[in-house]
Structures are given as structure tokens and as C-alpha cells.
Amino acid sequence: xxxxxxxxxxAGGLHARPPARGARxxxxxxxxxxxxxxxxxxxxxxxxxxxDVGVDIDVAENGSGxxxxxxSFDRAASDALGDLASQMDLQDLALAGWDVAGPARxxxxxxxxxxxxxxGSAEELPSVLAEIAGPDVFDGFQxxxxxxxxxxxxxxxxxxxxxxxxx
Length: 167
Known about the structure:
- With 167 residues, the chain is of the alpha+beta class.
- The protein contains 5 helices and 8 strands; from the N terminus they run E-H-E-E-H-H-H-E-E-H-E-E-E.
- 29% of the residues lie in helices and 33% in strands.
- Strand 6 (142-148) and strand 7 form a beta hairpin.
- The N and C termini lie close together (7 Å).
């Protein structure tokens, strides 16, 4: 099952091991980086540049899965920002258990920065989502199992959103 929020597309490799205990410090840095990229995108959009941020959630039948975040910059945005590779410190994301790819220009001629992180169960999903931009952005977002006549159904929902059945 694959759930999309925005145009993140398919992100790079998966992170098979959980983050180390000391990685919590990196959570703040990861949020700051992603939030900073988003804010830079907002400023660039106001100046006729295009920056898109998307989040994909890929969930297996057992409730584990992957969260992928993608940030794309059109040519005008990447030119306005300059050399993103030298401006971004991606070590915080790695310390928080995220696998990062980019910045790299892809076939769509956009400059992409992608980050993915695995979660081991439905209960872990809210904390991974909170790492993206803080606890308020995906507040109340949860993945839960619901028993039905034909078996189990995974339900993804939030307080403001009607739950969506995903089989």
C-alpha cells in the first residue's frame, strides 16, 4: 500500500536499522533542515521560483513501512539558492536515522533532495512524521488496524481528515 501527500515521488534506499539512542539530538537538526528547506521554498515561490515538498508513506501489511520526503527545486529556485550541496549539513538527518540522497538534478530537470526513514510498526509512524517538521504538522496522524468481516484493514487518518481505508 502506498499513500501520498504531495509530489515527493519515489525516494532512495531504505534504512534497515533503528536509530541509535543518541540520535534524538539529530531529530531537532533534521526538523530544522527540512523546515528550513520548506521556508526557503516559500520565499522562492513568492519570487516566481518553484519548490515542491512532498511526503510519501509506504506501509506493508504488517504495519511497518517507510516515510519518504522529497523537496524539488526548479532551475530558477536552484540558481537563486546557489550551491545547495555546500549549504546543507545532512549529518543531522543521518544521525536521526534518515537516508538522504541529493541534492541532485534528475531526469525531470528538477534539483531533488530526498530523505527516507523506516518505521517498524504502526505505532512508530507518528513519531517519524513528527521528525519532518515538528509535532504539529501531522498532529493526530495515525495508522491503526481495524477488524472487519473479511480480515484486517489498515486505516490511516488524522483528526481533521476522514480516515482512509487502505488494503
